[in-house]
C-alpha cells in the first residue's frame, strides 16, 4: 500500500485527489495538511467524503509528510518551491499539481508568475508529467510537475500534428473552461451570479498557461510554434474544451483520423472519437480521459481538432494519480477506471 | 458472475444502470434492449460508456432476457406489466424501476395512471424494494418494485417519526427535484431554456407519487397519515431534496438526533448528518446515498427533516442494484461504493 | 425630475436600482456612493450600464446626499442606522433596502442581528414599505423600510388567508431563493462551484427574515401566527418561490381563487394566476411583479399558496422604486412596466 | 401607430418580439398567428406577457396580415417563401427573421437547406438587414432578411478589419451560443439534462450560417475571404460570444482600437469596449447591443476580436425591430433602450 501525503487539501484539486484515492486499490492517504483547517475532519468540510475518510487536516509537518511514499502538492504556486526540496531529500517522491516546476526556464517562470523562482536547483530533477509524451521519464522520476489543465487539453489535441510535421508551425487554441479552474478561493469573479448564464474570454492578451503550452509544443515540434491561446470562462463547474485551428502544409493530404488513432492506440486515457464526432465535456465528467475529434471543414487545408477533459481529473488530480501509478509500477489505470457521470 | 438484462436502456435510468454495473465486481450486462435503437452500440449513444461496453441495443427478445439471472426494467409504466410475467415464469428474477408494481391496489394504480393495471396477478409476488424497510422480503423476492425517487427521499426522512409514533399523523412533504426526473423524452417542458434559471411547483393538486408515498407511510405508521406532497422543478440535472414538516405530539420530547442515528446506524446508504447540518444534493451526486438532517426551529413542536438523494441513483438505478445485491446474497454495497462528485 | 441618491451602489440591489432608474421617466440618479470604488465610473464596474450613465461612485457625503429628493440605502445592515438620521433631518426622504428599520422592536432587532439597534429614535417614523398593505402610510412617509425578499413573497401569499380569518394561525413557509439573495460579497458559499447543480436548505433553525415575517403576519392576522420558515438555496441567479402551507378552519369552504382575485384586483404588481396554475420564477425575471396560485390538494383542508417574485426587483429594488413613486405622487408603475425576460 | 403582424409567434424569437414591442412607443401588435395554438391567449402560453397583451394566436390569414403595416416572420425556413409574396403584393412590408432571404444565390440556399428555394423572384427585393452596413437600403426596403445570430456577431467583429484591408483574407470564427439558438422545438439535444454542465462544438464540418457569413464578409472585403466557422453550444439560455482570429498583413501597424471606435462611433447598438476589456454575454442580456473588444496577444500580428450579443435580441428580434424603426423613419432606438439584466 502506497502511503500518500497531500499538502493543501482544501481546494478543488485536493478534494478531487481524496475522491479518487478513496477508490484506489493500492494507495492510502495518511496525511493531509491545511494550515487554516488544521483539526477539522476532511469529511466535515467535504460531506461527500463522509464514510470514506476519518482523516483530519493537520498543520504541514515535514516529518509526517516525508514518512509517506509520495506527497502531492495541491497548493497555490510557490508552496512546492518552499517544501519540495526537504521532502525529496528524505527519499519521498513529490507530485506537484501547481505550476512550480512546469516551466524549465526559471527566468521565464519568474516573469509570468511575478516572483523569483523559489527552487531552481530542483528543475533538473523535475519531469513534466504528461504520460502520453513522457512516460519513460516518469517511471524513474522523483519530482513530477503535473501539467496544467489547458496545457493538457491543448497538447493532446495538437501534438500529433506537430510531431508529424504536417502543419505550419502556428496554432490557434480557443479554449473554454468551467469555473472550477479558478479554484475554491472566495473571489467575486467566481460567484454564481457573476459566471452563470454568461460566457466571456479572459487573459486574451496573455495567460500563465501560455509559456507552458509553448514550451511543450515547441519540444514536440522540434522548433518554435507560434501560439495564440485565448481562454474563455463557461457557466459550468467542470470541463475544458479546446478547439485547435491549424493549417495543413501544402501537399499534405494525410488521413488525420488514422494518424490520431495510431498515435493514441495504446493510450488508456486518450480516446479518438469516430470521424465526424463532436466530443462533449460531459462525456468525461469525473473521469481521467481526454476525448478528441478531427475535422477538416469543407475539406480545406484548415484542421480543427476538438479535445475535452475534466479539468479537475485529466487536467489535475487524475493525471497526478496516473503519474503515481507509473512511478510506482502499478497498472496505469489503477483507481482511474470510473465511468463519466452522464447526464 | 450475475448475468444481467436491461429492458429499455436508452433513458436516464438505463444509462445509469450501465454506468454503475460497469464497476460492479459480480455482475455483467449481457443484454440491453431498445426497439428504437436496435443495432446501435450503447457507447455510440452514450460516449461516457466508450471503453466500458461493447454491447449493442437489441430488439426485446424474451428468450435472450430470460437467459439472464435478473432483468431490470428501465421503461415507462406499462411495459413491465406486459413482459415481466413471461420472464419470471422462466425462472429469471425481475427488478422493475417503473411504477408498475409499486402500488398494491390495482384499482388505485389504474386511477392514477389512467389505464387498467396490466398484471394484477403478479402483485402478490411483488416486493417493494426499499431495503431500509423490506430487506428480509427482498432477500427471497423474485419481483422487485423499485421505489420512486420522491417516495425514497420522503420515506427515509419521515418513517422514523411515524414508526416511533411521535407525531400527529400528518406530513407536509415539500420536494425539489432536478430535471432528470422527467426523463430523456423530448418535451418542451424539459428544455434547458424552459427550466434553467427558474423554479416552479408542479402537480400541486396531485402527482402520481402521492399514492405510493401514502401507501408506505401508512404501512410504517400502522394507520392513515394525511399527506400533502408538492413537488418542485429545480434548475439542475440531478438531485432530490425533500423537506418534511411534522408536528410532535404534545409531551413528546424525544432526542430526534439520537432516534435517527439509532434507526439508521446499520444502514450502509443512509447517513444521518450531525445536528445543525443542512445536506446539499451535491454531496450525493452520482452515489447511492441518502443524507438526512433534523431541525426543530425555535425548539418548538414542529419537526423539519431534510433529506437528499441523487434521484438517478438512490432514487432509481443505484437502489435497483442494491436490491440485486440483497437478492443474490452479495455484499449490499458491491459496486455502489463511489464517492460523490463534488464540486 | 426627482433627484435620487444611492448609498452603497456596488451590490446587486444597487446595480438593480441603476438599471430600473435608467428607464424611469421622472427620476434621475445624481449621486451614488461607494467608499471602496470612489472615482470609478459605474459603467466601468457594470458594463450593462454603458451608454446609460456617466456617473462615478463617490465617497459618501451627507451634503451631496441631502441635496437629493430621496436617498436609497442599498447597504449592509447598520449603515442606514448611522446615516439616515442626518439625511432625514435635512428634509430628504430615505428609502432603506436593508433590514435596519423593518423590525419595530429594537430589542428583537438586536437579538437577530447581533448588535445594538443604531437608531431606535427613528423607528416611529419608519413605514414598512409593502404597498399592498401600507399604501396610505407610504404616501406621507419620510423613511421607508423596504421589506425583505422572503418576507415580500410570503406575506403576499399568506396575508389574504390570515386577514380573512380562514385558517388556523399557523403557517409553514418553504422558500426557495436564487443565489443573488446572498449578495455580491466574495464568499465561498456563493461560488458557482458551490451552488450550481445543487439544492440545500439553510438557516432551518432560524433565519433573520423570520422575525420580520412574523411581525407582519401577526399584524395582518390581528393575533400571533405560528410560523415555520425554511429557506433553500437554488442553483440560479434570481428568483424566489414561496410555497405556503396552511390549514383551513373547519367549516370554511370559501372560494379561495375568488378571495385572492378580489384581494389583489386593484394591485398593479400582484397577479393571481388562473386556477390550477403553477407560477415559475422566470415569469417575473427582471420585473416588479408577484405571481400567485392557489391549490387545495385532493380538495382537503390543506391550502397551498405558490408565490414567485424576482428577489432583486419586487423583493428589493423594484419595490423600493414603487415606494418612491407612491411617496412622490407619481404613477405607481412609473418606470416599472417592463416585461419579464423569458426565456 | 404602426400596425404589426407576426407569423409564427410561439417560438423564442416570437415571444421576444412580443416582449420588445410591448414597450415600443410607436408600434402595436395587431395579429399573431400560430396554427397549432390558434385560440390560445399569448399570455396563457407566455405568462411573462400577462397584463401586457390581450391577443390570441390565430390561424394565419393573409387578409388580416396584409392589413398591417409590417409583418414579421418568426418561422422556420420555408414559411416566408410561401407567404411573403402575397403580403408584399398587398402593400405590406415584410421583415423575415428566418433564413429564407439571407442568401442571394438561390442555388446555394437550396444546397444548404436541402430544398428548392421557394421564392427566388423576391430575392431582388430583399435587403440584408444589418443596419451597420445596409442602413440606406433598409430605409426604402419592402422585404428585409434579418441576419442570423452568428452572422451578426461575426460580421460586426470582423468587417472593420476586412473593409480596411488590414488582414489576410482569412478568418477563424470560433463561436459560442446559448441553447435558445436551437429554438423551442422539443429536441433531445436541447434538454437541460443534455446541455447543462457541458460544452461541445457542433457542425464543425459545416453549419448553415457559414454561407451567409461568407457572402457578407466577401461583400465587405470586396474579395473572397477564407472562413473557418465552428459553433459551440454553451450551457446557458441566451448569448453569443464570437472570437475572431485574423492575421495582420505585414507592415500594418494600425491602432485597432481607434479603427473600431471610429468605425462604430455613430452606431447606437455597437459598443467598442475600452482597450484590454473582455465583454461578457451577460452585459447584453435582453438588449439590442453588440459589445466588442480588440486584442493583439503579445503584440504579434494575430488580431483577436471578441464580440458578444444576445442571440434573441441583436441576433434576431431586436435587430428586426431596429430594421422596422429605420424603415418607418422612427428613432432607430425606439423601444430598444433597455438596460441589460445583470446579474
From TrEMBL, chains A, B, C, D:
Pathways involved: Amino-acid biosynthesis; L-arginine biosynthesis; N(2)-acetyl-L-ornithine from L-glutamate: step 3/4
Pfam families on file: Semialdhyde_dh, Semialdhyde_dhC_1
Semialdehyde dehydrogenase NAD-binding domain boundaries: 3-141
Top-level class of the enzyme under EC nomenclature: oxidoreductase
Residue positions of the active site: 149
One GO cellular component term noted in the UniProt record for this chain: cytoplasm
Keyword terms, alphabetized: Amino-acid biosynthesis, Arginine biosynthesis, Cytoplasm, NADP, Oxidoreductase
UniProt-listed SUPFAM superfamilies: Glyceraldehyde-3-phosphate dehydrogenase-like, C-terminal domain, NAD(P)-binding Rossmann-fold domains
Subcellular location: Cytoplasm
Listed GO MF terms: N-acetyl-gamma-glutamyl-phosphate reductase activity; NAD binding; NADP+ binding
EC number: 1.2.1.38
InterPro entries per UniProt: AGPR, AGPR_AS, AGPR_dimerisation_dom, AGPR_type-1, NAD(P)-bd_dom_sf, Semialdehyde_DH_NAD-bd
Annotated NCBIfam families: argC
Family, per entry: Belongs to the NAGSA dehydrogenase family. Type 1 subfamily.
Function comment: Catalyzes the NADPH-dependent reduction of N-acetyl-5-glutamyl phosphate to yield N-acetyl-L-glutamate 5-semialdehyde.
HAMAP family tied to this protein: ArgC_type1
The protein, known as: N-acetyl-gamma-glutamyl-phosphate reductase
Organism field: Oceanospirillum linum
Lineage, top ranks: Bacteria, Pseudomonadati, Pseudomonadota, Gammaproteobacteria, Oceanospirillales
Name of the coding gene: argC
Amino acid at each position: 500500500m502506497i502511503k500518500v501525503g497531500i499538502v493543501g487539501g482544501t481546494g478543488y484539486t485536493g478534494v478531487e485527489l481524496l475522491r479518487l484515492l478513496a477508490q484506489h486499490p493500492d494507495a492510502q492517504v495518511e496525511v493531509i495538511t491545511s494550515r487554516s483547517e488544521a483539526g477539522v475532519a476532511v469529511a466535515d468540510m467535504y460531506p461527500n467524503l463522509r464514510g470514506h475518510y476519518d482523516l483530519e487536516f493537520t498543520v504541514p509537518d515535514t516529518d509526517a509528510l516525508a514518512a509517506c511514499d509520495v506527497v502531492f502538492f495541491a497548493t497555490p504556486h510557490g508552496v512546492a518551491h518552499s517544501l519540495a526540496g526537504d521532502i525529496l531529500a528524505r527519499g519521498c517522491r513529490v507530485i506537484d499539481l501547481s505550476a512550480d516546476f512546469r516551466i524549465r526556464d526559471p527566468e521565464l517562470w519568474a516573469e509570468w508568475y511575478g516572483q523569483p523562482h523559489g527552487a531552481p536547483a530542483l528543475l533538473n530533477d523535475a519531469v513534466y508529467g504528461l504520460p502520453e509524451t513522457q512516460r519513460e521519464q516518469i517511471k524513474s522520476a522523483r519530482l513530477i510537475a503535473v501539467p496544467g489543465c489547458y496545457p493538457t487539453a491543448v497538447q493532446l489535441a495538437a501534438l500529433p500534428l506537430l510531431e508529424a510535421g504536417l502543419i505550419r508551425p502556428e496554432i490557434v487554441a480557443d479554449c473554454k473552461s468551467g469555473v472550477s479552474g479558478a479554484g475554491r478561493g472566495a473571489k467575486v469573479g467566481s460567484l454564481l451570479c457573476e459566471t452563470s448564464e454568461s460566457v466571456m474570454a479572459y487573459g486574451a492578451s496573455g495567460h500563465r498557461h501560455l509559456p507552458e503550452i509553448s514550451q511543450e509544443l515547441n519540444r514536440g515540434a522540434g522548433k518554435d510554434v507560434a501560439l495564440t491561446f485565448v481562454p474563455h470562462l463557461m457557466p459550468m463547474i467542470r470541463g475544458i474544451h479546446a478547439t485547435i485551428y491549424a493549417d495543413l502544409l501544402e501537399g499534405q493530404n494525410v488521413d488525420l483520423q488514422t494518424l490520431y488513432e495510431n498515435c493514441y492506440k495504446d493510450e488508456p486515457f486518450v480516446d479518438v472519437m469516430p470521424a465526424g464526432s463532436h466530443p462533449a465535456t460531459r462525456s468525461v465528467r469525473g473521469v481521467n480521459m481526454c476525448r478528441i475529434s478531427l475535422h477538416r471543414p469543407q475539406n480545406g487545408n484548415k484542421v480543427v481538432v476538438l479535445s475535452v477533459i475534466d479539468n479537475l481529473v485529466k487536467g489535475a488530480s487524475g493525471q497526478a494519480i496516473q503519474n503515481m501509478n507509473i512511478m510506482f509500477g502499478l497498472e496505469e489505470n489503477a483507481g482511474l477506471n470510473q465511468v463519466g457521470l452522464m447526464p
